[in-house]
Amino acid sequence: MSFAHTAEAVPAWVHGWSVSRGAAQPVSRAWGFTIDVGLPGHVVRHVLPAADEATVHKITESATAPGVWLKTFVPHETLEPWLAPGWRLAGGAGFLMSASLHAAHAQAPAKTPDGYRLRTWTRAGVTRALVRTTSGAFAARGQIAVTGPTAVVDQVETDPAHQRRGLGRLVMRVLIEAASEQGATAGLLGATREGRALYETMGWRVLAPLTGAVRGPDTADT
Q1: Ordered strands of the 205-215 beta sheet
Q2: What is the pLDDT of residues 65-111, one digit of tens each?
Q3: Residue 100 — φ and ψ, nearest 5°?
Q4: DSSP notation for 100-116
Q5: FRET partner for 157 with CA separation of 20 to 30 A, picked from 66, 120, 144, 173?
């Protein structure tokens, strides 16, 4: 199973993302979803599956407190002129991607490179993978939230000093295997431009652009 359309993928991604981050249950709105995140630089997140100028301007004009985020599935150049004063684009160019976990799981398992150690654990429906050097330094990580037949990959990153050593691929393979064992058949993730290149080699495909904006100070986000 994989998602063919943004309209069906976005609700699944929103719910999986909220589980992954330990955020509140998403609240349905006429235009999409609102999620209470509860972090100083990321207090609340609004997600618009089908953004339009009037809706974006209304939401961003009424939200004047810092730490409010907006996620849409339109390109940067489309969203930016719709934003009210005090808002700015954030997070760089992104992409909503989907894959069949059965196909991805069928690939040959990745091996932990020499000089690294891999640890995984699962709590409250979220499996995390951590790669460290044999001396204990951070090298890479990622997590995946399983919500029924869908699994959402989240926060995959590799330390710049350890890139191009197959660690991102290792983390992805481990997470996909864990989700498949829990019964998930379709995967979703929000990718950066750099991440997209890796995921496409692993059978993931782009469903839509993923563009974020924030009111107030910027924070790390994916």
Answers
A1: 27-28, 33-39, 42-48, 68-72, 205-215, 87-100, 186-192, 150-158, 138-147, 126-133, 116-123
A2: 999 999 999 999 999 999 999 999 998 889 999 999 986 655 666 78
A3: -80, 120
A4: EHHHHHTSPPPPPPTTE
A5: 66
